[in-house]
Amino acid sequence: MENQPRSDLPNKTPRPKGELEELKRIWATPRGWRIVTTVNNTEIGLLYIGVAFLFFLMAGVLALLMRTQLATGNNDFIGQELYNQMFTVHGTTMMFLFAVPAVEALGVLLLPQMLAARDLPFPRLSAFAIWAYVIGGLVFFSTILYDLAPDGGWFMYPPLTLKEYSPGDNADFWLLGIGFIEISAIAGAIEIVVGALRTRPPGMTLAKMPIFAWSMLIFASMIMFAFPAVILATMMLEIERSFGWPFFTAAKGGDSLLWQHLFWFFGHPEVYIIFLPAAGLVSMMVPTMARTPLVGYRLIVIALIATGFFSFGLWVHHMFTTGIPALSLAFFSAASMAVAIPSGIQVFSWIATIAAGRKKFRITTASLFILGFLFIFTIGGLTGVMVAMVPFDFQVHDTYFVVAHFHYVLVGGMVFPLFATFYYWAPQAGRSMLSERLGRWVFWLMFSGFNIAFFPMHLTGLRGMPRRVWTYPSELGWDTLNLISTIGSYILGAGVLLFVIDLVLHFRPGRGGPENPWQAGTLEWLPNDVYSNRSIPLVTSREPLWDQPNLADDVKEGRYYLPNAPTGGRETLVTSPIDAKPQYVIQMPTSGWSPLLAAIFTAAFFLLLTVKLVTISIVCGILAIAFCLIWAWALDPGPSKGLVDIGGGISLPTYVSGPSSHSWWAMIVLMFVAGSLYLSYVFSYLFLWTVSPDTWAPSGSPAPPDLGWPAAAALLLLAGSALIVLTERMLPPAGTKRMAVPIAIFLAVACLVGSLGVELAGHWRTGLSPTANAYGAMVYMGAALFGQLAFTLVIFGGFTIARHFAGKLDRERRVTFDNMALLYHYTVGQSLFGLALVHGFPRLVG
Amino acid sequence: MMRCCFVWPAAAILLFVVSGCAGVQSALDPTGAEAERINTLSWVLIIFCTAVFIITAIIASVALFANERWRQQLAGERLVIGAGLIFPAVTLTFLLAYGIFVLGMGGGSADTSDGLRISVVGERWWWRVIYRDENGRRIESANELRIPVGRPVKIDLTSADVIHSFWVPKLAGKLDMIPGRTNTLTLDVTSPGVSRGQCAEYCGGAHALMSFFVIAMPEKDFAAWLADEAKDAHQPTDELETRGQALFIASGCGACHTVRGTAATGAIGPDLTHVGSRHSLAAATLPNNAEAFARWIRDGQHIKPENLMPPYPIFSDEELASLSSYLAQLR
């Protein structure tokens, strides 16, 4: 392949006149104030990372204020109430509004480039998620300015956060803030799973995929399984706060530990959700700076997968001091130590790569940040081994030792790689490089400041200082250590400030930065423009730019695949998930107002609901749905464009349905999310039963309704599924309509709503109330989860019917229908399981 | 850059050494059996981790700066598998076994047949302490725990409202106080003395000001103290104190506080029967003297914001003086 003659390349040059201009026109960034309607990954990715970084700065300012308060004992610079709000907002913002969005933003910004795709597969979904996050996040953060900020700590343990102990709206703002990150995380997961598996360039098999893509793929799968637990937990907390369903109230059979289990089942993987992409970035930069391929590529991939897997078995190590049995302690202690091994593999792979370079490791600002990361993260990993030892954790849990530990892990493991990324990949989003000279100052200030601030905290904690205290008495011997930490934090702050100065002086958003300034080997360094790469290369190795010498030029001249826009719109190539064989050309949506407006009204809906302006919030909710529908209306383009030639004698369809379709994959991801949400519910149900079996039916609560009720509900569900299967067979030939289709869909949706009604009526008749005890709350929560899906399907069903009436749905053009059918059958499956649980379990144990 | 790596661990060790052991709330200065075992474990971990860090830093420095021949030694998957997989797998297994062994030693072998049982209830933001003597008699106190030296004492931990965590670093690890659950901690103090404890689970509001003292006493002294503690409150002796007592009752203080042997039988706030004998006021926020009582009654919300006792600016200076001298003599 190395010296392939140009005649073998898929397309001939010179390319026809006007082709490049057409690409530029199609992919042009909207001008002026219309820039807000853009959906292209580079532009919204930059907005995403920019806003995430803004949150980093603002939460950092809070940290400096807190450090000032703690500089000496008995200080009263910041009072108790504000301090309690500050550490809650600092933690929440850093975790939810900075760290997760920042790595997701890097996925949005860099992943398509690394895969030589023109864009992510669902550009409007990204735009929607990002705008919702920007608006919701900024409003959340601003609550600190008018005394409305949550003050329950970033993990918001009930009962402290229940209405009784936190009566204001403050806690609701926390739930709101996290709601937006839930939306954008799930949207991001869909993008990334489908993007990494389906939009790779031809020839890039899974075994040739860049490590960053691997880490993002695992990141996205972890989101699919971890976030649902916290989504359920936040739903239950808000329901208990608003309507008094006692999930977490011990006096009524609930348990505050349920929150801890759900929160940490999410919260621990969350740490790796943040760390894995950063590790992936390091695995991309180290080979470039060492000028040699990564040592242990396969080991690193296994390590990433193992980390993702183990991270779900560690959550109880946040709960070692809650009094759980010794056997569980031992199990979770072992799992917590085991997760050190994949990190060890990665650390030594990087060191081996550094050693493998023929020339010595290049020391640039990015490399300094990587070495700083290795230094800090190794310490954080080792203190992680320490806190995994249960007896040691009994002492240091919830002290400054743990504060030191997780800052070493998170700042070391995520912030330092992020700064390396800024210096390394700046040309991907800007016209020029950042300053290497300033960069070194930034690094040394941040590195020394960080260690001076956080290293002493290990000792402060061992000497007995708990975290989350706004003041402490001077006579306990913590003053000097705290003063050192405060000084260090200012130095760290100075480093970040210098970076901002560098950014202002040198960063100019736009295209046309230096080409491949570090002589890297991966595809994001191909020459690119608004349309990304002129043509999509055929990849034969992990470092194509090193192994295919003419690649940059050939891609730029359009000698590879899809050098044009054969459908006349935005498009990218879809390949098979494992071997990356070209399958079809996606037609992608272009800039538009609907994602932005949908995001604004979604944000408005939640915000107004939080401040109890119910009517107007419902209006906003309806508008949000309406704009989502307007946006969805333009999708599912149908097969009208026929086959297109992408070069090399390959003709591809421009439309597919069924399991090859990218939207089918997205639906499957969404079903995994819904499925793990439901599993979290099943866990919660059984957990509360083990805690308070005395509240369970039939002895502690009204016996469940006669079996006739669930049987009727189940029959309705099955009838609905049968109707959907029937409808699929009845879909009319292209361009025609058939009245039976909308009628059958309508009936199927009616079956679903009817089934929900039967289920609710059955329980209501027994006199069971959701507020009476944990059992009642859990039974109605099951119905609420069913209702959530039913509500979606009412809208989705109506949308599908409207598509049919508009002549946009038939036997060929059917992706909308396929997706609705998938969700429908999933809902039936989940609800049948739910009926068996809610009606069967009390009978089984009763 | 990695050259500076050697400075840090050295500084770290130095920091630990010079820090010495001081402070009534330091886990590094143990006087309880569990804290001593954990302290040994801590040092094993600190030394192990420091060694691993130094070796890693040396390997990284070789990879970065050494000559070609040395670097090539490291440039392969052998290093990754040896140092990244086998080494941690082996050492962590040993550490884990040690950790589980230490954990097992803390398990309930304590002999409580002598009938002493102490309950501590976490409240916002203070500690309700309930002793039961051999006869099962309930003796309530607050914000101070007295225990005998030389035998394990079981402490039942519960919460009246939100989650708190009971932590006396010198004596043992922490254990949470969770509504609806009872956790039991064993304290086995090896030498008499005072230790300070603090709430370790954020409980809102004045969490930072929720501390207490533990006084470990020789067995005999403890028995005598408990007998005293079980008695009703001292009756005031002089006129000032007598006026204070009358004011205490007349102002409705008894709606929240109990002073055994008087009409004050409230159960919402701390029992004040022997409040004057304790080491501190307001859950280790103030020293225990008449002046502190006066400040607390008038201006408690500034001393300990959001605490659930309303401020009483209604009292004149003379009234405050009599109230506080009454309270201070409740020894």
Automatic annotation (TrEMBL), chain A:
<feature type="transmembrane region" description="Helical">
    <location>
        <begin position="329"/>
        <end position="356"/>
    </location>
</feature>
<protein>
    <recommendedName>
        <fullName>cytochrome-c oxidase</fullName>
        <ecNumber>7.1.1.9</ecNumber>
    </recommendedName>
</protein>
<dbReference type="InterPro" id="IPR036927">
    <property type="entry name" value="Cyt_c_oxase-like_su1_sf"/>
</dbReference>
<feature type="transmembrane region" description="Helical">
    <location>
        <begin position="404"/>
        <end position="426"/>
    </location>
</feature>
<keyword id="KW-0479">Metal-binding</keyword>
<dbReference type="InterPro" id="IPR035973">
    <property type="entry name" value="Cyt_c_oxidase_su3-like_sf"/>
</dbReference>
<feature type="transmembrane region" description="Helical">
    <location>
        <begin position="86"/>
        <end position="110"/>
    </location>
</feature>
<dbReference type="InterPro" id="IPR013833">
    <property type="entry name" value="Cyt_c_oxidase_su3_a-hlx"/>
</dbReference>
<feature type="transmembrane region" description="Helical">
    <location>
        <begin position="739"/>
        <end position="758"/>
    </location>
</feature>
<keyword id="KW-0186">Copper</keyword>
<feature type="transmembrane region" description="Helical">
    <location>
        <begin position="707"/>
        <end position="727"/>
    </location>
</feature>
<dbReference type="InterPro" id="IPR023616">
    <property type="entry name" value="Cyt_c_oxase-like_su1_dom"/>
</dbReference>
<dbReference type="GO" id="GO:0046872">
    <property type="term" value="F:metal ion binding"/>
</dbReference>
<keyword id="KW-0560">Oxidoreductase</keyword>
<feature type="transmembrane region" description="Helical">
    <location>
        <begin position="211"/>
        <end position="237"/>
    </location>
</feature>
<keyword id="KW-0679">Respiratory chain</keyword>
<feature type="transmembrane region" description="Helical">
    <location>
        <begin position="257"/>
        <end position="282"/>
    </location>
</feature>
<dbReference type="InterPro" id="IPR000883">
    <property type="entry name" value="Cyt_C_Oxase_1"/>
</dbReference>
<feature type="transmembrane region" description="Helical">
    <location>
        <begin position="591"/>
        <end position="609"/>
    </location>
</feature>
<keyword id="KW-1133">Transmembrane helix</keyword>
<feature type="transmembrane region" description="Helical">
    <location>
        <begin position="173"/>
        <end position="199"/>
    </location>
</feature>
<comment type="pathway">
    <text>Energy metabolism; oxidative phosphorylation.</text>
</comment>
<feature type="transmembrane region" description="Helical">
    <location>
        <begin position="44"/>
        <end position="66"/>
    </location>
</feature>
<dbReference type="GO" id="GO:0006119">
    <property type="term" value="P:oxidative phosphorylation"/>
</dbReference>
<comment type="similarity">
    <text>Belongs to the heme-copper respiratory oxidase family.</text>
</comment>
<feature type="transmembrane region" description="Helical">
    <location>
        <begin position="438"/>
        <end position="461"/>
    </location>
</feature>
<feature type="transmembrane region" description="Helical">
    <location>
        <begin position="481"/>
        <end position="505"/>
    </location>
</feature>
<dbReference type="InterPro" id="IPR023615">
    <property type="entry name" value="Cyt_c_Oxase_su1_BS"/>
</dbReference>
<keyword id="KW-0472">Membrane</keyword>
<feature type="domain" description="Cytochrome oxidase subunit I profile">
    <location>
        <begin position="21"/>
        <end position="552"/>
    </location>
</feature>
<feature type="transmembrane region" description="Helical">
    <location>
        <begin position="823"/>
        <end position="841"/>
    </location>
</feature>
<keyword id="KW-0408">Iron</keyword>
<dbReference type="GO" id="GO:0020037">
    <property type="term" value="F:heme binding"/>
</dbReference>
<keyword id="KW-0349">Heme</keyword>
<dbReference type="GO" id="GO:0022904">
    <property type="term" value="P:respiratory electron transport chain"/>
</dbReference>
<dbReference type="GO" id="GO:0016491">
    <property type="term" value="F:oxidoreductase activity"/>
</dbReference>
<dbReference type="GO" id="GO:0005886">
    <property type="term" value="C:plasma membrane"/>
</dbReference>
<dbReference type="InterPro" id="IPR014241">
    <property type="entry name" value="Cyt_c_oxidase_su1_bac"/>
</dbReference>
<feature type="transmembrane region" description="Helical">
    <location>
        <begin position="664"/>
        <end position="687"/>
    </location>
</feature>
<dbReference type="GO" id="GO:0015990">
    <property type="term" value="P:electron transport coupled proton transport"/>
</dbReference>
<dbReference type="GO" id="GO:0004129">
    <property type="term" value="F:cytochrome-c oxidase activity"/>
</dbReference>
<keyword id="KW-0813">Transport</keyword>
